[in-house]
Amino acid sequence: RPRVLSPVDESFTIKQLSHINMIVANCSTPGNYFHILRRQIALPFRKPLIVMTPKSLLRHPECKSSFDEMTLGTEFKRMLVESGPASQNPEG
């Protein structure tokens, strides 16, 4: 019998976060960094937050987010899909 995954809702995410010892994140955009800090403050419990970001991204001119990525209705993205030349297969 195939295993069918149910859609992830907010209560599942909160339950999953409450059963772990710490949160480890690698934020590659300022927008994601903003959302991970905001989520850390908004959680009803406290767990250590470890942010592993390469120092080269701190002042890199290409590592930027628009203000639209940090307004109401946006949230932390668990995985960012590659875009641009890096996402294209050179052999395809």
From TrEMBL:
Residues 17-59 form the Transketolase-like pyrimidine-binding domain. Its cofactor is thiamine diphosphate. PANTHER family: 2-OXOADIPATE DEHYDROGENASE COMPLEX COMPONENT E1, 2-OXOGLUTARATE DEHYDROGENASE. Belongs to the alpha-ketoglutarate dehydrogenase family. One of its GO terms (biological process) is tricarboxylic acid cycle. It comes from the Eukaryota. This is Neural conserved at 73EF. Keywords: Oxidoreductase, Thiamine pyrophosphate. One of its GO terms (cellular component) is mitochondrion. It holds the Pfam family Transket_pyr. InterPro entries: 2oxoglutarate_DH_E1, THDP-binding, Transketolase-like_Pyr-bd. GO terms for molecular function: oxoglutarate dehydrogenase (succinyl-transferring) activity; thiamine pyrophosphate binding.
